[in-house]
Design goal:
- This protein is α+β, with helices and mostly antiparallel strands and 130 residues long.
- The protein has a domain of 86 residues: 2-Layer Sandwich (Ribosomal Protein S8, Chain: A, domain 1), CATH 3.30.1370.
- It is built from five helices and three strands, in the order H-H-E-H-H-E-E-H.
- It has a three-stranded antiparallel beta sheet, covered by helices on one side.
- Helix 4 packs antiparallel against helix 5.
- It is globular and about 50 Å long.
- GO terms for molecular function: RNA binding.
- This is RNA-binding protein Nova-2.
- It comes from Macaca mulatta (Rhesus macaque).
Length: 130
């Protein structure tokens, strides 16, 4: 009927900032999965990205809220390696994203945007030590 998923994501901008609002707007602009698209995208994809240890909290959010929000927005499953488990030779945690190609791409985009944003905030507001 063309209205599949209409109204989903309403209110997703609450506390999520412009990033979540942009993702919700992208969804409203035709990003909803129809039954045909869903069948075509049933192939599962696994993507791994590295996130600096000090920025994992920005992706998790308070009580894991941001991570859950990203999973709900994209339909992908996002897992972060345990504290102290780094990619070999780095201080980066492994973030594993699984789902349809569209879902993993969307989740990867949201995470990379969040990391970039947080790096910018921290660069312009250096924390005072001591």
């Amino acid at each position: 009927n063309g209205y599949l998923g209409a109204g989903a994501g309403g209110g997703a901008g609450g506390g999520g900032g412009p990033l979540v609002a942009a993702a919700a707007a992208a969804g409203a602009a035709g990003g909803f999965l129809t039954a045909e698209k869903l069948a075509a995208e049933s192939a599962k994809e696994l993507v791994e990205i590295a996130v600096p240890e000090n920025l994992v909290g920005a992706i998790l959010g308070k009580g894991g809220k941001t991570l859950v929000e990203y999973q709900e927005l994209t339909g992908a499953r996002i897992q972060i390696s345990k504290k102290g488990e780094f990619l070999p030779g780095t201080r980066n945690r492994r973030v594993t994203i699984t789902g349809s190609p569209a879902a993993t791409q969307a989740a990867q985009y949201l995470i990379s945007q969040r990391v970039t944003y947080e790096q910018g905030v921290r660069a312009s507001n250096p924390q005072k030590v001591g």
